[in-house]
Write a structure and sequence with these properties.
This protein is of the alpha+beta class and 674 residues long. The relative contact order is 0.08. The longest helix is centred in the middle third of the chain and has 27 residues, at 311-337. The strands form 6 sheets. It has an 8-stranded mixed β-sheet with strand order 5-4-3-6-2-1-7-8. It has a 5-stranded mixed β-sheet with strand order 9-10-13-11-12, with helices on both faces. A 4-stranded antiparallel β-sheet has the order 18-19-20-24. β18 (491-496) and β19 (500-505) form a beta hairpin. It is built from 18 helices and 24 strands.
Length: 674
């Protein structure tokens, strides 16, 4: 058995420091929390090279007494916990006494501090856990900590750090969260000699949200202020119309501490149930105030998770606070639309059924009545354009093609059977091993010797009732390629419920889901890596606020976004400007789609598995495809069903729904007893 020895102090400190200090963001978090615990009302954070080379944090707090300065860098030295009982009711952000010792163990630290009672301050220098200098200096009240050359003595940890921009974004994310949790403190962030954030410190949370996330995000928020069974919930939540595709913009704080709580997330999303689309998530900045003895914050090394004595009370507090805020906002909006009876409760979406609806927000001291406008596109050249991947531009024509069922021909009292048809899962009528051959348009300049007569209705070749006489070939027969195979005529009958294409060919009835079919066609084109999508310039650039992780992923993968048809510029502070979008997305919700793409890009950076990229392509294809109930030109339907018929790979959409169903003439006639 190997001999057991006691580690040297230097080695043990490096091990302990690795549990607390993972990256520059960890240092900024610990020092910012110390400044707030010291009663500071103004804190300045400055970083260079992502914080790896230089971090300086200056506050105007109470400072450190000269005799306590060396003690502050010892392990388990703290002024916030005195005895065992204090651990059961922790009221400060820091309490373990490990931060300063861990920081000085892996970097070069310089501290200057002064208390209001003393005329002179102290300058203290420590490197690698060893004291270098301690002298009296003149300095203002408060504390300044400078950290240089992080992990200079631990190269194994240094090589695991990410790029400077990634580390800087992580630092800014930490500063954002602390600024949101303490609106009474003015926090300033200087990144590479440029001010990135400066909160007013006027104890107005809305002002901090505006400073951190920008105007577009702030104007979508509504106030929450409620108390239930001793749990006070205050903050802001997004209106149901402004939902997001992920939870990246959900921020919860418990007694001023940023936490990740599944209880709070579940309560928030349960309160939004039936008010938000399935698969969408609300954004929030909520601060929960609970008795300190009801929360245990000493359950996670980074203190990012907490344990509640009674989770049910916390769940109910968040649920009722959010639910009441949504109800009050709904009543306010409805009252401005049309007068209703007091006992009638209308849905939040009642006033949003039309494209010209308006969203009215009520934030303290803010007049933010905004009108939703569709995206405006620059006018293209006046030439006939065919959209990418075979999507045919709609042509206005007064002539009606025989055999096509138009919407005007349908009676007004047609029952809505779309839901019934969509819910039917029985696909036993689909013939197995059905041969599907391609349908290719022939070149009009090619030889027409063996070409069958042309239909006067759809200008398509018809199959003669008499079989063609086979030609005698002297040489050995070569198997025909798909391009050389004879293709049957596909006669489009019309549309069913403006969702399904009905067509007849070769003794079969074809039923094609036009959205699923077009979605799969676009998906296959994206996977094949064909030419980049055609772009359309926006007259007014679209600004989108992202989380720091999504923001970094978007800026670092602009080449991939360019292939997808997006031109994106950095607007700073977590916001990007979309100047060009794919032509196929004309009239679509580009903001919602881009948020999903940003989340997929973020996930792809952490997990480069092919399925992550496939999900990105599937999202793009789904949003760009034609939708059910869209009015489509008959030529567009003809092209779509031909692409489906000739490509065996287009049988299911990327989400697994069937694209085409078939029924033979014999089976159809049996249903009528023929």
């Amino acid at each position: 058995m190997p001999k057991i020895i006691q580690l040297d102090k230097h080695v043990s400190e490096l091990i302990a420091a690795g549990e607390v200090i993972e990256r520059p963001a960890s240092i900024v978090k610990e020092l910012l929390e110390n400044s707030i615990d010291a009663g500071a009302t103004s804190v300045t954070v400055e970083i260079q090279r992502g914080g790896v080379q230089y971090i300086r944090i200056t506050d105007n707090g109470c400072g450190i007494a000269p005799e306590d300065v060396p003690v502050a860098f010892r392990r388990h030295a703290t002024s916030k916990v005195r005895n065992e009982e204090d651990l059961g009711k922790i009221a400060t952000l820091g309490f373990r006494g490990e931060a300063m010792a861990s920081i000085c163990a892996v970097s070069r630290v310089e501290l200057m501090t002064k208390t209001p009672e003393n005329q002179m301050g102290v300058r203290y220098v420590i490197q690698g856990g060893e004291e270098q200098e301690s002298i009296q200096v003149g300095c203002p009240d408060g504390t300044t900590v400078i950290v240089r050359d992080l992990f200079y003595n631990v190269p194994a940890r240094l090589k695991f750090l990410k790029k400077d921009v990634s580390e800087a974004n992580a630092v800014q994310s930490v500063v954002d969260k602390i600024a949101l949790s303490h609106p009474e403190v003015s926090i300033k962030l200087i990144r590479e000699n440029k001010t990135q954030l400066h909160t007013p410190g006027n104890n107005d949370l809305y002002s901090v949200i505006y400073a951190v996330f920008g105007r577009d995000f702030a104007k979508t928020m509504m106030t929450v202020d409620s108390s239930y069974n001793g749990t006070q919930v205050k903050g802001f939540i997004s209106i149901p119309m402004e939902s997001r595709s992920n939870r990246s913009m959900q921020h919860f704080f418990v007694n001023g501490r940023y936490v990740k709580s599944k209880t709070c997330m579940a309560a928030l999303e349960e309160a939004y149930k039936n008010s938000i689309m399935v698969g969408k998530f609300p954004a929030c900045v909520l601060n929960l105030s609970l008795p300190y003895d009801q929360v245990d914050v000493n359950v996670h090394p980074s203190k990012i998770e907490v344990r509640f004595t009674n989770e049910r009370i916390v769940f109910d507090g968040v649920y009722f606070a959010v639910k009441n805020a949504i109800r009050q906002q709904s009543q306010l909006d409805n009252a401005q639309e049309v007068p209703i009876k007091p006992h009638v409760m209308r849905s939040f979406f009642a006033q949003n059924d039309s494209a010209q609806s308006q969203t009215r927000l009520s934030a303290p001291g803010k007049n933010m009545q905004e009108e939703s406008h569709p995206l405006q596109f620059a006018q293209p050249d006046p030439v006939y354009q065919t959209a990418s991947w075979g999507k045919i531009e709609k042509q206005a024509s007064a002539a009606r093609i025989p055999g096509i069922i138009y919407e005007d021909d349908l009676p007004e009292d047609v029952p809505d059977a779309h839901t019934q048809l969509s819910s039917k899962k029985d696909q036993k009528d689909v013939p197995e091993n059905q041969d599907i051959v391609s349908c290719e348009k022939k070149d009009p300049q090619a030889e027409t010797e063996d070409r069958p007569p042309v239909s006067p209705v759809l200008d398509m070749p018809q199959i003669s009732s008499e079989p063609p006489v086979p030609k005698i070939q002297e040489q050995e027969k070569v198997p025909a390629t798909p391009e050389e195979m004879e293709i049957p005529v596909i006669h489009v009958i019309g549309e069913l419920f403006q969702t399904y294409i009905l067509a007849e060919t070769n003794g079969m009835l074809l039923i094609v889901d036009k959205h699923a079919a077009h979605e799969r066609i676009l998906y296959e084109k994206l996977r094949a890596g064909e030419s980049p999508l055609d772009k359309q310039v926006l007259l007014t650039p679209l600004s989108i606020t992202l989380s720091r992780e999504e923001y970094e992923a978007v800026l670092s993968q602009q080449a991939r976004l360019d292939d997808l048809g997006f031109t994106v510029d950095d607007f700073g502070n977590g916001t990007v400007l979309i100047r060009e979008v794919p032509t196929l997305l004309s009239g679509e919700n580009c903001r919602e789609l881009f948020c999903e793409i940003a989340e997929n890009l973020r996930a792809l950076r952490r997990n480069a598995a092919p399925e992550a990229l496939d999900h990105l392509y599937a999202t793009m294809a789904c949003k760009a495809a034609i939708k059910a109930h869209d009015r489509n030109d008959p030529l567009e339907l003809q092209k779509l069903i031909e692409d489906v018929y000739k490509n065996d790979a287009i049988r299911y959409c990327p989400h697994g729904r069937p694209v085409i169903l078939t029924m033979t003439k014999e089976k159809f006639e049996r249903q009528f007893g023929r």
